[in-house]
Amino acid sequence: MTTLAFTMFFLSMGNPGFSVSVDAMVSPQMNMEKLAAQNTLRLNAGSKGDSAAEMKKEQHRKRLRKGQIEKAKASAEAKKNQNKNQVKA
Fold it and tell me: Chain-centre distance of CA 32, in angstroms?
């Protein structure tokens, strides 16, 4: 028994002419909470997609940086070799 029904039961025992009818409806607050929960789930699913896209972008940035570093190393090595050749000549 719910608390309300339990309270009404004891009130009616003390007063035989006492009667209460209660309509059981879903409150608007419960509907709002349900909608909020659904929106949260939807946003979480969306953020997972966003994080996956962000991860791909970060991987791309890392590849670019790695390529730039390797290119810079190769360029430095070429200059170093060129300087050695000039010193020998």
Answer: 20
Q: How many domains does the chain have?
A: 1
Locus of tokens 């029904």 = 5
DSSP 17: T
User: Environment class of residue 63 by beta-carbon count within 10 Å: exposed (0-12), middle (13-18) or buried (19+)?
Assistant: exposed
Q: Are 8 and 20 in contact (CB under 8 A)?
A: yes
pLDDT tens digits for range 30-75: 778 888 888 887 777 666 667 778 888 899 999 888 888 888 889 9
pLDDT tens readout for residues 63-73? 888 888 888 88
Range of the domain at 42: 3-88
